[in-house]
Task: inverse folding
């Protein structure tokens, strides 16, 4: 589980992304220009990525602080896999 501060930051980014996504949907429905629509879509994607990175980095730190030995290695491998899925 993410640190409370990291979770709060991630939730704020996700809420912002939700608003941006709603705007993108409206833009598509209204037939607005492709360039501005894609620009907004890229902003949504970046916001989601940053939220994911915030949660993963917080989880990684927690993992490092609380696990030892083989369990730590396994946790680190799982977190690395999830982290790389965002790249």
Result:
């Amino acid at each position: 589980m993410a640190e409370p501060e990291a979770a709060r930051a991630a939730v704020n980014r996700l809420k912002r992304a939700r608003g941006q996504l709603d705007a993108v949907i409206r833009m598509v429905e209204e037939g607005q220009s492709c360039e501005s629509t894609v620009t907004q879509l890229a902003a949504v994607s970046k916001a989601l990525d940053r939220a994911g990175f915030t949660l993963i980095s917080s989880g990684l730190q927690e993992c490092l602080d609380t696990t030892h030995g083989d369990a730590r290695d396994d946790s680190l491998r799982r977190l690395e896999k999830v982290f790389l899925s965002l790249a």
In short: The CA atoms of residues 2 and 62 lie 8 Å apart. The longest helix spans residues 34-66. The chain has three helices and no strands. The mean pLDDT is 83.
